[in-house]
Specification:
DNA damage, Umud Fragment, subunit A, mainly beta, Peptidase S24/S26A/S26B/S26C domain-containing protein, DNA repair, single chain, 7-stranded antiparallel β-sheet, 106 residues, LexA-like, 7 strands, globular, LexA/Signal_pep-like_sf
Length: 106
């Protein structure tokens, strides 16, 4: 499948369940706009320590960056076991882009 995207956009196949509560499912194609900055609350594609890429909600704190999943259970406010936020020193995070859409084929 090839999507016709603007020059500063790209697509990735999303794997995992950290964004399931906002409707992004394992196997979805996510559309990312290339940019190296983010605002609090943006869902970003971030590179951690130049090794691991992740798609999470971004929050900047005084001395850290929080990457927060969106996969809390629907019946309680308790997060699933692997759904806690991770905090990083800013120098360990590189923003690769911002989520702007998803494509799901049925």
């Amino acid at each position: 499948m090839e999507l016709n995207l603007p020059a500063n956009h790209y697509s990735l196949t999303y794997t995992g369940d950290s964004l399931c509560d906002i409707g992004i499912q394992d196997g979805d194609t996510v559309i990312i706009r290339h940019q190296d900055t983010a605002k609090d609350g943006d869902i970003v594609c971030a590179l951690i320590n130049r090794e691991e890429a992740t798609l999470k909600r971004y929050f900047r704190h005084d001395d850290s960056i929080e990457l927060r999943p969106e996969n809390f259970s629907g019946k309680s406010s308790a997060p699933l076991s692997d759904s806690t936020s991770d905090f990083y020193p800013p120098e360990q995070i590189e923003i690769q882009g911002k989520l702007v859409g998803i494509y799901r084929q049925y």
